[in-house]
Amino acid sequence: YNATAELCGLTLGVQVIDTWGRPKLMFVTFWLAGIFVLLMGIKTSDTGLFVISCLARASAVVANSTTWVLTPELYNTDMRATGHASCNAWTRVGAFIVPFIVQSRFSNFTVGFVIFCVNLIGVFVSCIVPDMTGLDIDSPLVEASGSSSNSNINSNSNSNSYSYSNDNSNSSSN
Questions:
Q1: What 3-state DSSP class applies to 118?
Q2: Residues 1, 4: Cα–Cα separation, whole Å
Q3: Residue 143 is inside which H or E element, if any?
Q4: What is d(CA 17, CA 45) in angstroms, rounded to the nearest whole number?
Q5: Mean pLDDT rounded to a whole number for the chain
Q6: Residue 115 contacts residue 37 (beta carbons within 8 Å)
Q7: How many whole angstroms separate alpha carbon 23 and alpha carbon 69?
Q8: At residue 101, does pLDDT exceed 60?
Q9: DSSP string of 2-68, one letter each residue
Q10: Is the pTM of this model over 0.85?
């Protein structure tokens, strides 16, 4: 049933990732995954626990997949492999630690609360990460400023605070 929950979550995630944008989808799914995991610690029927756990699993897999879609888009081509590998290394650290928390003597609610807090980190990151939807990933990323003096910043119809610069137009030719 976990695979069915993941498949349903991924199907929904694929449908909305480009219309909602990566940060918004990350925000919603990390938040939902955290809430559902927290709810798993509450005493409920087996059916209720099953439904909540499927919703938690679906939300978690969409949050994770959206993060994996966004991560390589944040880095220039030269740094993409290093950046993606460093993010992958941190997921391995988390994958190592989590079984010791879940299979501990802590109550189900305490375990759910710890995982909820970890999901809040994902919620926070989704608030500060730029939306890369529709941007050219081969150009360097620059922070957009309110002034019009920086001609390297491309405007985007989605009102992103980040875009890619086009340094090729400023190079002088001999």
A1: helix
A2: 5
A3: strand 141-143
A4: 33
A5: 79
A6: yes
A7: 11
A8: yes
A9: HHHHHHHHHHHHHHHHHHH-HHHHHHHHHHHHHHHHHHHTS---HHHHHHHHHHHHHHHHHHHHHHH
A10: no
